Structures are given as structure tokens and as C-alpha cells.
Amino acid sequence: MTRALTMNTMLSPVMTARNWARKTGRRFKKMTPASHNDDHPERHPVWWMFDRIARRYDLLNRLLSFGRDQAWRREVVRGIPRGADLCIVDLATGTADVLLAAREAALPLRLGVGVDPSEGMIALGREKVRRLAASPPLHLVRGDACALPLGDACADAITMAFGIRNVADVDAALREMRRMLRPGGRALILEFSLPENRLIRWAYLLYFRHVLPRIGGLISGDFAAYRYLNQTVEQFPYGAAFCAKMRAAGFVAVSARSMTFGVATVYEGVSPDLTETRPAGGP
Known about the structure:
By secondary structure, the chain is an alpha/beta fold.
């Protein structure tokens, strides 16, 4: 009975996603890059930038990460709780790589929902879904990770790959994830980080600051997008600092697993069952 109610809670907003997307689309169009402070690139609404680079996004991900981005996403999928009729929400879904990786892993999905503010990325993701994933149903909608149209306790897992540093309010996005997860559900967040080893960090920053922006800019035609990438990665809290943010948002059993010499990190947090902590006879 609980599962049926949870599914109805999730499916109802998904069925009206087109109307919701049109409303948020109008709101997004009113905002322009000129209205934001360039000293804080991580707080920019960056969907227009991803619209510009969408066609080259997958190619550049594979090229600039030497193919490691797919392995990192598979690590995220491995952390999804196992069980029947899983409901997964993927934030900053981009071209739907995480949802497609979950399908390829043969997880028993009942429903997958991808949310992204970039219409260009969503359009390419829908093309990939139509081509590669007939079942289970994967729905991609445009939206803001800080204010989502999905119900409370509707998801078994919420994933986010290379998107948390782009949201306007990181703490609000984490609270939204916590709200949407059922008790015992898991948030899995993949993000770039900085290696601890000083020599590796030096080599990584040399590549990230000087090589990656040039290659990315040449292939995509958008040098600003790849300068933005290294700026936001270096400014964003990682490791213990980000784990603290997850705990502040209400997650328990928070952990961080670093990959490829610390270049990327998968953060995990569990949504607590609050009924287990209530005193006997409490409300």
C-alpha cells in the first residue's frame, strides 16, 4: 500500500510535466547573464551555456576525462539501493547518461525521471532515450533542482552527476533531495574534486586551468563554458566540507568515495526514517 501511494505521488506530477516545464521556461527566459555577478560563477543560472555546448557535450566529456566520466557514472549507479519497482530521479540529467546507465545495469526500474534546466540538453537526452531505452519509461523534463515539481517521499534514489556546483543554492537543492526521498532512500552525488596528493594536484590543475579550457573551447566553439568549469570546480566545497552540507540538510550515513586519484568524488547520504527516532507516545 505504501509503495502504491508513493508511486501515485510521483506519477501525478510527471504526467503534468509539460505544463510545469512551460511555466518554468517562461520564468527562466526572464533572467539573463547580465543580471549576475561574475565574481561567483557557481551561482549563475547556466542553462543558456549548456544550450550552446549541448551538441558537443557528450563528445567532450569522453575526450576531456579520457573516458573516465562513464566509469564514474557507473559507480553512482552501483550505489542505488536494490529492490523491486525502483523510482529514480536524476537531477542535472543532461543527456540522460545516468538514467541510461541504470537501465544498462538492469536495475528493476519502474520509473526514471530526469530533470535539467537546459532545453538543449534535455532535447538531446530525449533523442538518446528514444533510441536506446524503450523500457522502463524514462521521462525528461526541464526544471530547477532547488524547486522540483515532484511529491514528498516519492523516490528510492536521487542522483546528480556534475550538477550540484551549478545550482543557485546548494543547500536548498540538498533539502529538495531529502524531501523527495522515501525513508531509507539514497542521494548519490558525483562531482569534481581536488586531489590530496600535491604532485597530482599540481598536474591536475595545470591540465584543468590551461589545457582543458583550450581543447573544450576549440571543439565546442565556447571558450567561456570551459573556463567556467575549472573556476567552479576550484571554488566548490568538496570532501568533508560537502559531507557537512549533506548532514546539515538532514542526511545520515553520509560518506564520500574518491575516484581516479581524487579527481572526482561520489557522495552518498541516506534519508532517515524519522519515525524510528520519535519517543514512545510522541506525535
